[in-house]
Amino acid sequence: MFTGIIETVGTITHIEQQGTNHTFWISSELSDTLKIDQSVSHNGICLTVEAVNGSSHRVTAIEETIRKTNVGHWKVGDLINIERCLPMHGRLDGHIVQGHVDSTAICTRMKTLEGSWEFTFQFPTAFAALVIEKGSIAINGISLTAFNVTFNELTVAIIPYTFEHTNLQRVQEGSIVNIEFDMLGKYLQRHIEVQQLMKGA
Q: Could you tell me if 37 and 114 are in contact, meaning their C-beta atoms sit under 8 angstroms apart?
């Protein structure tokens, strides 16, 4: 479980492909604190640490992860948002983020303001019911608030600290990002679907 508050940004230093799996070595200031088998959020994707070597660690994305996220677009030199899991005694400063990316979204607009930035993302229409005005959304693992919500687009506003300390600084129009919708909304949608199925049974 994560909060969407990014701790640091790592850099991909090496990529290997084994069958349908993609393995990444990532260098970061947190890598030497990680332990093998630890769950860590990488751009909002919960991945297991397989090895640690000094200031770098290794993770692998399998076919299911590659299909639903932007992992297939990662390349050497890319910046990756990193967050360790929430300790039981920790504060929930963002919102509940599982690290289970639902889909990808495309940046359709970026607006630079005086002291902030606004990014608009287009997401698959199948998830339209899960986005509400002023609701929580995770973009590349970052806990953000959605506004100007339409059927399949949402906008988020970024403060300078978030822009400077995450990989949003490299997101441009056309960039593909990971998106995880609010868990409470997904449970509610599932509850409604099950109730409808039971009525029709």
A: no
CA distance 140 to 104: 9
0.85 surpassed by pTM: yes
- What is the C-alpha end-to-end distance of the chain, expressed in Å? 35
Decide if pLDDT at 190 tops 70. yes
> Which domains occur in the chain, in start order?
8-84 (2.40.30.20), 103-190 (2.40.30.20)
Residue 94: φ, ψ to 5°: -105, -110
Are 147 and 155 in contact by the 8 Å Cβ rule? The answer is yes
**Residue 51 β-bridge partners:** 58
Residues 127 and 138: their CA atoms lie apart, in Å, by 14
Give the C-alpha distances (Å, rounded to integers) separating 167 from 9, 80, 81, 127, 139: 7, 6, 6, 24, 10
Q: Contact, 181 vs 124, CB < 8 A?
A: no
Residue 25's identity, in one-letter code, is W
pLDDT score of 29 more than 80: yes
Strands (E), 51-116: 51-53, 56-61, 79-84, 103-112
DSSP state of 166: S
